[in-house]
TrEMBL record:
GO terms for molecular function: 3-hydroxyisobutyryl-CoA hydrolase activity; lyase activity. This is 3-hydroxyisobutyryl-CoA hydrolase. SUPFAM superfamilies: ClpP/crotonase (SSF52096). It is an enzyme of class 3 (hydrolase). It comes from Achromobacter anxifer. Residues 19-371 form the Enoyl-CoA hydratase/isomerase domain. Coiled coil: none annotated. The keyword Oxidoreductase does not apply. Pfam families: ECH_2. GO terms for cellular component: cytosol. GO terms for biological process: L-valine catabolic process. Keywords: Hydrolase, Lyase.
């Protein structure tokens, strides 16, 4: 059986190395399991402390996806076993979300350049891995989204932080509708830094072996770690040299950004929901599909995603991860998460029975339980130390 994550190191001409981590589950579109999270976290930590490694590359096996999301089947099994019990009782979910969020935060704060190849499908947990990378690269076939509304979750993995930092109100629109973005809109939304044709990816990897990376080769002094900015610049130069010359046409999100900002403006979810719902028959199929996805999705997820963005708008990234951890655990016990997975992946009837069934029943009072700390009184938050290193 192949390892779920493959690791290799390449050595440049000057003896400095770079690491390549490959998510190796193409049959599940490289869906992120707890084992994969732990393997990545361990290896990233080793590379971070290795003065002979200049940078890290993240990629997915196969041609279809970098990473299409998290381990929904594993979470479903454990939610079924924990049915009727508090989310805190679900040991697997506690570990999964804590370890995943720690990994995502580690990438955001990684001390070396991280190049993420966001080719093909990048959704959910894949967004969490990619968004913290310093050099985020998309291809002509990239499709990015946070479609958690369709499975009764919410845009987690730091999504409440990320979406709040997009232009205008487009982050809220993406959270409520799960709308998919192509290459052009990935740049407009601030989800990508570079683009590369899929056929040129091997050329890029080969060019990395030719760069004069700044770092300590074998046998050097352990404290001879050079400024990171040198390697950031070299990586940017390598990517820019292969960037396609053809300009990108504006995508659907950019074309409709004025309308989206207008409809999503305001502080009342009920009004925003009604305005977006009216787009279900829009002449642009992309807008119509976005509205239809929201209407078919979990009303509770819509309310929770909205509440998270409102409450966490000015919070730091580590604070956002702590709040999302509480909300995610609550989703395993109180929300529509298990039902959404059942309808989409288990029974595949695509007929989820949402509870609450309509947006009017998903009130401000109803959503409060997703913010209540679930652990015994006096215990620290499992992510309490996040962001406090070196303080």
């Amino acid at each position: 059986m192949n390892a779920p994550v493959l690791f290799e190191e390449k050595t440049a001409a000057n003896g400095v190395r770079f690491g390549i981590a490959t998510l190796n589950s193409p049959q599940t579109l490289n869906g992120l399991s707890l084992e994969m999270v732990d393997l990545l976290a361990s290896q990233l930590d080793a590379w971070a402390h290795d003065p002979g490694v200049a940078l890290v590359v993240l990629q997915g096996a196969g041609d279809k996806a970098f990473c299409a999301g998290g381990d929904l089947h594993g979470l479903y099994r454990n939610m079924s076993e924990n049915a009727g019990k508090p989310g805190w009782n679900n040991a697997y979910a506690r570990r999964f979300f804590e370890h995943e969020y720690r990994l995502d935060y580690r990438i955001h704060t990684y001390p070396k350049p991280v190049l993420c190849w966001g080719h093909g499908i990048v959704m959910g947990g894949g967004i969490g891995l990619m968004m913290g990378a310093s050099h985020r690269v998309v291809s002509e076939s990239s499709r990015l989204a946070m479609p958690e509304v369709t499975i009764g979750l919410f845009p987690d993995v730091g999504g409440s932080w990320l979406l709040n930092r997009m232009p205008g109100r487009i982050g809220l629109f993406l959270a409520l509708t799960g709308a998919q973005l192509g290459t052009s809109d990935a740049f407009f939304a601030g989800l990508a830094d570079f683009r590369l044709d899929h056929a040129d990816w091997p050329k890029l990897l080969a060019s990395l072996e030719e760069q004069p990376w700044a770092g300590q080769a074998a046998g050097g002094a352990e404290d001879a770690i050079p400024p990171r900015s040198i390697n950031d610049g070299l990586l940017r130069r390598a990517l820019t040299a292969l960037e396609p010359k053809t300009p990108l046409a504006p995508g659907h999100l950019r074309q409709h950004s004025f309308l989206i900002n207008s409809l999503c403006n305001g502080n009342r979810l009920d009004d925003i929901y009604e305005e977006l719902a009216a787009l279900k028959d829009h002449e642009d199929p992309w807008l119509a599909r976005a509205a239809q996805t929201m209407l078919a999705g979990s009303p509770g997820s819509v309310r929770l995603a909205f509440a998270l963005q409102q409450r966490l708008r000015l919070r730091s990234l580590d604070d956002v991860f702590r709040a999302e951890y509480i909300a995610a655990l609550a989703c395993t016990a109180h929300g529509d998460f298990a039902e959404g997975i059942r309808a989409l992946l288990i029974d595949k009837d695509k007929k989820p029975r949402w509870n609450p069934a309509v947006i009017d029943m998903a009130t401000d009072a109803w959503v409060q339980k997703f913010f209540d700390e679930p652990w015994p009184e006096g215990e620290p938050h499992p992510l309490d130390d996040l962001g406090k290193e070196g303080r």
